C-alpha cells in the first residue's frame, strides 16, 4: 500500500505499518515542538520544586527559629526526595498499566495541590509532610514525560529532543533562583519563603491546562489493544505536522504480560538495568550532594543572601552549554560515550572545586561542575528510555528515578559535610561517585544511536553493539 505525502510516499507492508515507521515517515514538525514545550514546562516546574528547599531554608529557619545544622533542615531537604522514591516507581508502573496521559494529569494536579499546601504549613512537621507528598506526586512526571517524548519523536531526532527536554531543568533552576532573589529584596526571609513555595507550584497548573489536548502514546495504546485510538493519535501527529492522514493500519505488537518492576530485572535486561541503576545512583548522589547545599555553602563562606542567589542564577546559565553540547554529541559520537565523558569531566571538576581558594575560583569550578553534570544528565535522560521495551518503558524510567531519589535522600547528609569543615571528604566521595558512574555507563555496552525504538529494549547488551 502506498500513501502520497509532501516528501514522498508512505509505504506500509503487511500486516501493517509499525509506529516507528509511521512517526519516522510523518517526520519532525509542529507536534513534536509543541510536545517539547508542554513537557518542558512541567519539567521546569518539577526542577524548581526539587531544588526549592535549598533556597527556602534561610527563611524557614528564621520563621520557625531553627538553628544552623538543626536536624529539621535535613528532614526538609530529604522529604521531597523521599516522596519521589515512592512516587517514581509507583507512577511509572501505573503509567504502563493505565496510560501515560492519565498518570500525567493526576500527578501534575496533585503536585500543584501539595505544593500550595506547603506554603501554608503552620509547623515544621506539616511542612515536611507537604514536601513528601509533593515529591510523591512529581515523581511521576519523569517516567511519563520521557516515555511520551521518546515515543512521539522520529528516530533521527529522538536523542536531541530528549536532551532538549532535560535542558528545561536549567529553566526551572533559573526560575526558583530568580524568584528567591526577587523576593529577598521585597520581603523579610520569614515571609518570603511562603511566597516562594506558592509561586513555584503555579507553573504546574499551567502545564496541566495546556496538556489536556495531547493524545496518549500510540505505542502504549497498541500494547493495550486499543488500535483505533492509536491510529487516531498518529493521525493527530500527521495533521498538526501538515501531513496526510495515515490510511495504512498500524502493526499490533504481540500480546505481552502486564508490566511489573520485576520484569526490568529479569532475562536479558538484568545486566543493563543494574549498570544503569548504578549510573543513576552515582550521578544523583554527587549532584544533589553538592547543589542542594551550595546556597548554604556560599552563605557560610561570607556571601550576602542576594549574592548567593545571583551566583546560583549564573551557575544555572552555565548548565545551558552543557545541554547544548550533549544534544550534539549524543547523535555524533553516541549516547554511551557522551554520558561517560561528561561523568569523567564531573569527577575532575569535583577535585578542582576542592582546590578552589578564591571566590573567583569557587565560581569557576562550580560553573564547570554545572556544565559537566547537566551535560551528563542530558545524555542519561536520552539514553535511559531507549534501553527498555515499550511495555516496560515507563516502569524502567520510574525504577531509575527511584534509584536516583534514594541517592537524593542520602546526599543531604553527605553534603552537610561541606558546612562542617569536611570539604575534602565530601568532595572525594562525590568525585568517586561520578567516576564510578562513568565506568558503569560504559560497561552497559549498548549504543542506541540511530536505531528505532522497535529495534531496542528486548535485546541484551551482547545483542546490540555499537
Automatic annotation (TrEMBL):
Subcellular location: Membrane
Gene3D superfamilies for the chain: MFS general substrate transporter like domains
Superkingdom of origin: Bacteria
Principal subcellular localisation of the protein: membrane
PROSITE patterns reported in the protein's UniProt record: MFS (PS50850), SUGAR_TRANSPORT_1 (PS00216)
Residues annotated as domain Major facilitator superfamily (MFS) profile: 35-449
Membrane spanning residue stretches: 75-94, 103-122, 128-149, 161-183, 195-214, 274-296, 308-330, 337-354, 360-383, 425-444
Membrane topology per record: Multi-pass membrane protein
Keywords noted in UniProt: Membrane, Transmembrane, Transmembrane helix, Transport
Protein name per UniProt: MFS transporter
Amino acid at each position: 500500500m502506498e500513501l502520497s505525502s509532501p516528501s514522498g510516499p508512505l509505504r506500509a507492508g503487511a500486516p501493517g505499518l509499525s509506529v516507528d515507521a509511521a512517526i519516522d515517515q510523518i517526520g519532525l514538525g509542529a507536534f513534536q515542538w509543541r510536545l517539547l514545550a508542554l513537557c518542558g514546562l512541567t519539567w521546569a516546574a518539577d526542577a524548581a520544586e526539587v531544588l526549592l528547599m535549598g533556597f527556602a531554608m534561610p527563611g524557614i529557619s528564621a520563621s520557625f527559629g531553627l538553628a544552623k545544622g538543626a536536624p529539621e533542615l535535613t528532614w526538609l531537604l530529604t522529604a521531597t526526595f523521599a516522596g519521589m522514591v515512592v512516587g517514581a516507581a509507583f507512577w511509572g508502573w501505573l503509567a504502563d498499566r493505565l496510560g501515560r496521559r492519565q498518570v500525567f494529569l493526576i500527578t501534575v494536579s496533585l503536585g500543584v495541590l501539595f505544593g500550595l499546601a506547603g506554603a501554608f504549613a503552620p509547623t515544621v512537621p506539616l511542612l515536611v509532610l507537604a514536601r513528601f507528598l509533593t515529591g510523591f506526586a512529581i515523581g511521576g512526571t519523569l517516567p511519563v514525560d520521557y516515555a511520551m517524548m521518546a515515543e512521539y519523536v522520529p528516530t533521527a531526532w529522538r536523542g536531541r529532543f530528549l536532551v532538549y527536554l532535560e535542558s528545561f531543568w536549567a529553566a526551572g533552576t533559573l526560575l526558583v533562583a530568580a524568584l528567591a532573589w526577587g523576593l529577598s529584596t521585597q520581603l523579610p526571609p520569614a515571609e518570603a519563603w511562603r511566597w516562594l513555595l506558592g509561586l513555584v507550584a503555579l507553573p504546574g497548573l499551567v502545564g496541566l491546562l495546556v496538556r489536556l489536548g495531547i493524545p496518549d502514546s500510540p505505542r502504549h495504546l497498541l500494547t493495550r489493544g486499543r488500535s483505533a485510538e492509536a491510529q487516531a493519535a498518529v493521525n493527530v501527529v500527521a495533521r498538526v505536522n501538515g501531513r496526510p492522514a495515515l490510511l495504512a493500519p498500524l502493526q499490533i505488537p504481540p500480546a505481552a504480560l502486564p508490566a511489573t518492576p520485576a520484569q526490568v530485572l529479569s532475562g536479558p535486561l538484568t545486566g543493563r538495568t543494574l549498570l544503569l541503576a548504578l549510573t543513576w545512583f552515582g550521578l544523583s548522589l554527587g549532584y544533589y550532594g553538592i547543589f542542594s547545599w551550595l546556597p548554604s555553602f556560599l552563605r557560610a563562606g561570607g556571601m550576602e543572601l542576594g549574592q548567593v542567589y545571583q551566583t546560583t542564577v549564573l551557575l544555572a546559565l552555565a548548565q545551558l552549554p552543557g545541554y547544548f553540547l550533549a544534544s550534539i554529541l549524543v547523535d555524533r559520537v553516541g549516547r554511551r560515550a557522551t554520558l561517560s565523558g561528561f561523568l569523567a569531566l564531573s569527577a575532575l571538576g569535583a577535585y578542582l572545586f576542592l582546590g578552589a581558594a578564591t571566590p573567583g575560583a569557587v565560581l569557576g569550578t562550580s560553573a564547570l561542575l554545572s556544565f559537566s553534570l547537566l551535560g551528563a544528565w542530558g545524555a542519561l535522560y536520552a539514553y535511559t528510555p531507549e534501553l527498555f521495551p515499550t511495555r516496560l518503558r515507563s516502569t524502567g524510567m520510574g525504577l531509575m528515578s527511584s534509584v536516583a531519589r534514594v541517592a537524593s535522600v542520602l546526599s543531604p547528609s553527605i553534603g552537610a559535610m561541606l558546612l562542617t569543615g569536611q570539604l575534602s571528604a565530601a568532595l572525594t566521595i562525590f568525585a568517586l561517585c561520578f567516576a564510578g558512574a562513568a565506568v558503569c555507563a560504559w560497561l552497559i555496552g549498548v549504543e542506541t544511536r540511530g536505531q528505532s525504538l522497535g529495534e531496542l529494549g528486548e535485546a541484551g547488551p551482547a545483542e546490540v553493539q555499537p
